Amino acid sequence: MALKRTYRWQNWSGTVSCEPHHRSRPLGIEEIQSEVLRCAEEGERLRVVGSGHSFSPLCYSDENQMSLDDFTGIEAADLERRRVWVRAGTTLRELGTLLFERGLALESLGDIDEQTVAGAISTGTHGSGLSFGSLSSQVTGLKLVVADGTVKTLTRDTGAELLDAAALSLGALGVITHVELQCVDAYRLHCQSFRAPLEETLVRLDEYLHGYRSFEFFWFPYSEIAQIKCMDSTRRPANLWQPAKLASDLALENGLMWALSETARRLPALSERISRFAAQRVPVSQSVRDAHQGLATRRLLRYHQTEYSIPLDRLPMAIRQIDRLISALRFRVHFPLHVSFVKADSLWLSPSYQRESAYVAVHMYRGMPYEDYFAAVTDIFDRNDGRPHWGKQHDKTAHELRSLYPRFDDFRQLRQEMDPRGLFLNPHLADLFDIQRR
């Protein structure tokens, strides 16, 4: 097991950094157990880090940090039941290829596929479509090394209640080493991107949501334009060479947006005009892709992000409120809001717990002031029963979270039983769960 004594870690967006005094990269279960026991014996804390795509300080540690980058791959596959056991450090992109080779696919995937499997389920990473839950809801089994160094196995078949707690647990219950995922047969997607008026999009929400397998939209502040992205299953052959999608992903959604964002950062007074300009250049394209290649989009720009889940029926009102807010307070923002949809689930800490949800993600280009903008938009989410996405920036306290997540205190009690000394805590989690730091 490789150890590093001097190391500076930074998350993808650059919003969180730390210098753990000890970093490990275990190669197997025994080395993971050994590191957990060492930290326990020395009275120190341990946080596991994935690809760093969380905007919140979930992985922050100035003590011990563990990376599972060397613990990857599919360990077992039950093709008849379409279930696979995956090592925790496997990225979603790697997993997509491995599943495709076995004739399988994930039923849904988020906008980014660079996260590790364990990191993605631990924060509630999700795609879009009311027929699908978050990636955490696709978990049928877990193996984790708990605070006493033993390996605990949880499965949907033998302990659904406990799995509902552990499948989305912020890394607070132990080190997840393996994840069993319920998959589906491999499929292809007909992907479309086009422009539509924002108000028309809100009026036709039900039509879009039930007319396509997957539907999401982006809205550019100060404009009346939304970018619609919708997908349907198809038997048509995949387009192996797709210049339109390549141009959209790299040139328009990354290259052009980078140039516009740098202009807005240097000349923030132009943000309103830049947003309107970008809205007029929303790519109009169609492509056919295998699912593991069609669901995610390459994101090269770095930004700040907050995201909240609100009840589905509150979305039109919330978007109109945000529109009026931005126009009234003249926030200097050009980055679009991203709206996606997730079905209800039973996971204790899920933002979609027992309700169909619309997720609204709000962005600000890195290097531009975002605090006042995020605070004002968060007030609107609060008025609409918003629940924060755990991997995004938010300032919710345990008192507030208790009223938002019906099983929040159940999770706090379980965490205390499984890790009474707080081996897997950091300052951020201690604050979230209202635990006095030792």
- CATH level-1 class of the largest domain: Alpha Beta
**How many independent structural domains?**
2
Beta-strand content bin: 25-35%
Radius of gyration, in Å, reads: 21 Å
The CATH superfamily of the largest domain is FAD-linked oxidases, C-terminal domain
For the termini, the CA-CA separation is 29 Å
How many distinct beta strands?
21
Number of alpha- plus pi-helical segments? 14
User: Biggest sheet, in brief?
Assistant: 8 strands, antiparallel
Structural class: alpha+beta
Give the strand order of the largest sheet, numbering strands 1, 2, ... along the chain. 17-14-16-15-19-20-18-21
Which stretches are poorly predicted, pLDDT < 50 over at least 5 residues?
Answer: none
Kindly report the CATH topology of the largest domain.
Answer: Vanillyl-alcohol Oxidase, Chain A, domain 3
Looking at the overall shape, the CATH architecture of the largest domain is 3-Layer(aba) Sandwich
Helical content stands at: 25-40%
Shape descriptor reads globular
Whole-number mean pLDDT:
93
